[in-house]
Amino acid sequence: MDAEGAFEKIVTGIHVITVKAGDKVNGMAAAWVTRVSHSPPLVMVSVAHTRFTHNLIQQAGSFCVNILAEGQDDLVTRFGFKTGKSTDKFDGLPYGTGETGSPILDGTAGYLDCKLISSHEAGDHTIFVGEVVDAKAYDKNPMSHGG
């Protein structure tokens, strides 16, 4: 069985999942994001149990999906290769905040600011389902890659 080979054929967007819990802000690069409902508008993100962002989402009860635009490779590097446990990934990076208080990154293709409504264990990840409470789309092409 070549599951990994088949998984690599699934084209997904590249996102940065951001969260603010108390005075801590953090974000992580993620590809496992999808819409799950039209009404109400729901989105799910799959986050490994070991990621620092995982516990922050549970504490905050919210998160924001920042949909990266083509050419934002620097954000993939910033949010994908270091842990927020020991690194301030937002140091020197301009950002706004959404209705939930989660960071909204500048220059993206769009964002979905979400309140957490449920979570589901799925192997070594947790699927967090959020209801979109604020969103915006910009006139930019989203970044994508194979799974």
Overall description:
This protein has 147 residues and is mainly beta. It has one domain (11-139): Electron Transport, Fmn-binding Protein, Chain A (Pnp Oxidase, Chain A, Roll), CATH 2.30.110.10. The chain is built from three helices and eleven strands. The two termini are 17 Å apart. The mean pLDDT is 93.
Structural descriptors:
two-stranded antiparallel sheet, seven-stranded antiparallel sheet, Pnp Oxidase, Chain A, mainly beta, 147 residues, 3 helices
Short description, anyone?
The chain is mainly β.
| Biggest sheet record | 7 strands, antiparallel
DSSP summary: helix tally: 3
The Cα radius of gyration reads 14 Å
Apparent shape: globular
Helix content: 10-25%
How does the helix and strand content classify structurally? mainly beta
Which CATH architecture would you pick? Roll
Strand content: over 45%
Low-confidence stretches: none
CATH topology: Pnp Oxidase, Chain A
Mean pLDDT across every amino acid position: 93
CATH top level class name: Mainly Beta
Strand count: 11
SSE layout:
Layout: H1 3-7, E1 11-13, E2 15-21, E3 24-30, E4 33-37, E5 42-48, H2 52-60, E6 62-67, H3 73-80, E7 95-97, E8 103-105, E9 110-122, E10 125-137, E11 144-146
Antiparallel strand pairs: 1-11, 2-3, 2-6, 4-5, 5-10, 6-9, 7-8, 9-10
